[in-house]
Amino acid sequence: VIGLSSDLQQVGAASARIQDTLSIVLQYAEDVLSDKVAADNTVGNFLMDLINQVPRISLEDFETVLNSSINDLLMEKEYLWHLRD
């Protein structure tokens, strides 16, 4: 159970970092659109390449994959926990 808690904490921390980074990118885009900051083609091209690398997946498929992965992780943790006994 301790390992699972640690894994969930890592996922939470990674999610927070992603959210922080996305906030910075969004603020940059808003600043460019409002002419507060000059557009930088290098940054724009990098962001476009990054977006194009994200797999296209429906919300339902994403939830299925995520739930399956979580269930697999839980089963592994349970199995390993019982090996300790």
Strand content: under 5%
* SSE arrangement, N to C: HHH
DSSP, total strands: 0
The tally of domains stands at 2
Helix fraction bin: over 70%
Largest sheet: none
Class per helix and strand makeup = mainly alpha
Indicate the overall shape. Answer: elongated
End-to-end Cα distance, whole Å, is 14 Å
Low-pLDDT parts are none
Number of helices: 3
Rg calculated over all Cα atoms: 19 Å
The overall pLDDT, averaged over residues, is 90
Q: Any chance you could write out the topology, listing elements then pairs?
A:
Blueprint: H1 2-33, H2 41-53, H3 59-84
Task: Considering the chains and any ligands shown, give keywords for the structure.
85 residues; mainly alpha; 84% helix; elongated; protein biosynthesis; Eukaryotic translation initiation factor 3 subunit F; EIF3F/CSN6-like_C; initiation factor; translation initiation factor activity
